[in-house]
Prior knowledge:
- By secondary structure, the chain is an alpha+beta fold.
- It has helices at about 45-55, 65-70, 95-110, 115-130, 140-145, 165, 170-180, 195-205, 260-270, 275-285, 315-330, 335-355, 355-370, 380-385, 390-400; strands spanning about 5-10, 15-20, 25-30, 75-80, 85-90, 185-190, 230-235, 245-250, 285-295, 300-310, 405-410.
- It has 2 domains: about 5-205, Cytochrome Bc1 Complex, Chain A, domain 1 (2-Layer Sandwich); about 230-410, Cytochrome Bc1 Complex, Chain A, domain 1, CATH 3.30.830.
- The chain has 15 helices and 11 strands.
- The strands form 2 sheets. It has a 6-stranded mixed beta sheet, sandwiched between helices. Strands 7-11-8-10-9 form a 5-stranded mixed beta sheet, sandwiched between helices.
Amino acid sequence: MVPFTRQILPNGLRVLVHEDVSTPLVAINITYYVGSRDEQPDKTGFAHLFEHLMFAGSKNAPDFDDPLQRAGGENNAYTTNDYTTFYEILPAENLETAFWLESDRMLALNISKKALDVQRKVVVEEFKETCLNEPYGDSWHHLSELMYHAHPYRWPVIGLVPEHVEKAELDDVRSFFKNWYTPNNAVLSVAGNIRPEDAFRLAEKWFTAIPKGPEMHRQLMPEPPQDAPRRREVRSSNVPVPAVYLAFRTPARLHPDFYAVDLLSDVLAQGQSSRLYRRLLKERHLFSQIDAYITANIDPGLLVIEGRPAEGVTPDAALAAIWEELESLKKQPIDARELEKIQHRFESTVVFSETSVLNKAQNLGFYEILDRAELMNEEVDIYLSVTTDDLHRAANDLFQERNSATLIYVPA
């Protein structure tokens, strides 16, 4: 349980504060409700570009890192399909430095030609390094394109092609910032050794004067149901061994069935006693590596199973073995003890994560944009209420060939 207090400023900024006197630190987190799904098809990668541009300096803080480091703090950021997060951790007595820095770049970010030129080179180089030159690095480009034809999840967070960022016009970049990086499209969450009234006072001092931005009304194209399996084989000299990916469309993050699907991914590949690891890797020696995970997107996302077949095992044989395990989940409900073990492991993971002030600050921000921050304290009970019948029904709904996409890498 993470108790918190909420206050909404006149400009729409939501401020959430959790007090934790057990630590000398405070984490401050700003979550902007903008991600790659809010980009135009011919201008992708902008949200990720701003993850970098936000550190290019602002009107009163030309170097973001220097004053924060002098205050004993550290910072970072990350971008997703749905939102972008910026955070700082620093001693409680120096917290105001972070409020000043975050407010200054929200109000007066330095979006100059020079700053854009520098950061676009960084982003394009990252694209080349992680997607084009790394083995299997373009897997999300292929999976996104296979699974989405209408919704903007059809391009990955880093962008569809590097040319979109390379050719980004200054006016387009400034317009993107003006529309999305506004107080009424953000959540400021604070966790650590600070009283709520002191945090609210700082928030009012540094953020109240920032004008409200335009009200953004998303009209995202929903992805129609998939009616046939999709498959792609990639031959590349850049991959050392074959790899297989099997993806399925999952319910949206707030859909009631999301929780059963999330637990299914744990049944498949959470730990060495999980089904795929134990049966396909340890017992049958068909894989040298195998994993399963969900994207947990706000809109309908993906459950992905990925693995490296063992030497001498063909990709099709490896995929057939995965389908055998999925079919067994569809035929026979899992044992209550197996579900209980997964649920308790999930509960302990949540409890452990709440020992970190940064995790608490970030979760408050995420759940507030997802729905409401109170859900953060309710979801453990929701997961614990999932039954074996729920998992059986979810498996039968999810693991259908028509709802799947297969991606195979083969060394050229």
